[in-house]
Amino acid sequence: MSDTHGDEYALRHAIAYQPQAKLVIHLGDGAREVLDLTDEYPDRRLLPIAGNCDYGYSAVLPDSGIETVAGYRIFFTHGHRYGVKMGLYKVCCAARERDCQILLFGHTHMPLTEYEDGLYIMNPGSLAGHRPTYGILDITQAGIVTNIMELGL
């Protein structure tokens, strides 16, 4: 998920709607609300990163990360440092340089799933606004499935 921009209500609902999810990655612009909820979900791992609107949190949170799930490497970032509003070339190169098979980013508020030359690319959109969305990665040894979900509030 990404870009909650203070909407803790939407964040809580997205987490509640996916009870099987063991890992929740928040792609920035919502660090405060994710950190506030961490203790409420002891059975889940919440990984927040800092986005361009997470004022003050860039000192305590990274702006990107890498996580390995079922043998697949995931590069995740907010995207503003890679100019994702102007195109995906830089952020895709960053994922590939890190030997990742999955790229997750936010910042644009536009949901996206693509597959390009061995790289799964997903932007879950934004949980803030009139059509909140989030993404699901179903990762198993058999493969990867990406889905964009609308949050029906």
Task: Tell me, rounded to a whole number, the average pLDDT.
Answer: 95
The number of domains: 1
Rounded to an integer in angstroms, the radius of gyration calculated over CA atoms is 14 Å
Described by the principal axes of the CA atoms, the overall outline is globular
Write up this protein.
- The structure is a single chain.
- The chain is α/β, with parallel strands linked by helices and 153 residues long.
- It has a single domain, classed as Purple Acid Phosphatase, chain A, domain 2 (4-Layer Sandwich), CATH 3.60.21.
- Helix content is 16%, strand content 33%.
- The protein has 3 helices and 9 strands, in the order αβαβββαβββββ.
- The chain has a 5-stranded mixed beta sheet with strand order 3-4-5-7-6, covered by helices on one side.
- The longest helix is centred in the N-terminal third of the chain and has 9 residues.
- The radius of gyration is 14 Å and the shape is globular.
- The protein starts with 7 loop residues before the first helix and ends with a strand.
Layout of helices and strands:
Blueprint: H1 8-16, E1 23-26, H2 31-37, E2 45-48, E3 64-69, E4 72-77, H3 89-97, E5 102-105, E6 112-116, E7 119-123, E8 133-140, E9 143-150
Parallel strand pairs: 1-2, 4-5, 5-7
Antiparallel strand pairs: 3-4, 6-7, 8-9
Features:
single chain; about 150 residues; alpha/beta; Purple Acid Phosphatase, chain A, domain 2; 5-stranded mixed sheet; two-stranded parallel ribbon; 3 helices; about 15% helix; about 35% strand; globular
